[in-house]
Amino acid sequence: MDRAPIPNHQQLAANIKIWGAELGFQQVGITDTELSLAEARFNDWLQKGFHGEMSYMARHGNKRSRPAELEPGTRRIISVRLDYLPEPTRKSREILESPAQAFISRYALGRDYHKLMRKRLQKLAQKISGEIGDFGYRVYVDSAPVLEKPLAEKAGLGWIGKHSNLINRKAGSWFFLGEIYTDLPLPIDQPASNHCGSCRACLDICPTQAIVEPYVVDARRCISYLTIEQHGPIPESLRSRIGNRIYGCDDCQQVCPWNRFAKLGREQDFAPRNGLGNATLTELFEWDETNFLKRTEGSAIRRIGHQSWLRNIAVALGNAPHSENIEAILKVREHDPAELVREHVRWALARQRSKSPD
């Protein structure tokens, strides 16, 4: 029986990077499975309880930091980067400075990236298979216990900054990551070196001081966690600091000096949909559940559900300058069927009334 020739792994690695670029990835790197340092840091983070309600972060033991335990036979990880910035960051800052508008993290304005990247990575794996025959692999896009940022750092895609996001010297941090775990003994790339230096812009800008020390984020204080991962009430002590951010927070990326090199993403699927890039809080608060599900179809936003959507917007409305229109809109949901919504509406109404000139 004819067998595929034994591949030249050096050439194959070079070809993988070419094929990745042809599929739209801005960068492809390759690394091994050694993550002992990242494992120690991750376990310390868990022990301090910084993961909050994200119990899934601790659910799989060491599989997250030991790729061969998650996918037996794994010898290398192919790590990829896909830029997504949908608009100049000055527009984001303008929205944050307009308290009547709704700020949504820029990654969530368009189509959910998971399916798009997974399909692209699957095509890359199929391209490799077409070249060398069957091989062992598995594709991941934030879909399993994977330490994607330490892997990407080791693969040379960038370094983990003090805000815990990956930073690339030529592209900033506005990008998604994905991986192919494989049994191929490919040559590995040089890890990226850290270039944060003495800068602490991200620590100083964080509205809730969630970056408790360089490279360590207490998720329980992070606005992205509070508006997306937190299922119950948002702690009252943090609500006023959320401002008009109703889904995620990009402050630490917006202020990072390396993002002056960031380029706008090329993917039309990541462009803002349904006016979410420039919507007001009041118009979004009026969405019923049917409208919410329709307008967020194919979006990462849908996964938080309508109740958390209203909870988040109620907090932002409470933070807005006093307005009789806002009070009236909040009163409509004062007797919402969900206690989660009612409780945050009551808080928002009290905040609005406390600012009333009467």
Detailed description of the structure:
The protein has 358 residues and is α+β, with helices and mostly antiparallel strands. It has a domain at 1-87 and 112-218 and 262-270. Helix content is 39%, strand content 11%. The chain contains 15 helices and ten strands. It has a four-stranded antiparallel β-sheet, with helices on both faces. The chain has a two-stranded parallel sheet with strand order 3-10. Helix 1 packs antiparallel against helix 5, helix 9 (236-242) crosses helix 13 and helix 13 runs parallel beside helix 15 (339-354). The protein is elongated. The model has no long low-confidence stretch (mean pLDDT 96). GO terms for molecular function: 4 iron, 4 sulfur cluster binding; cobalamin binding; epoxyqueuosine reductase activity; metal ion binding. Belongs to the QueG family. Residues 184-216 form the 4Fe-4S ferredoxin-type domain. It catalyses: epoxyqueuosine(34) in tRNA + AH2 = queuosine(34) in tRNA + A + H2O. This is Epoxyqueuosine reductase.
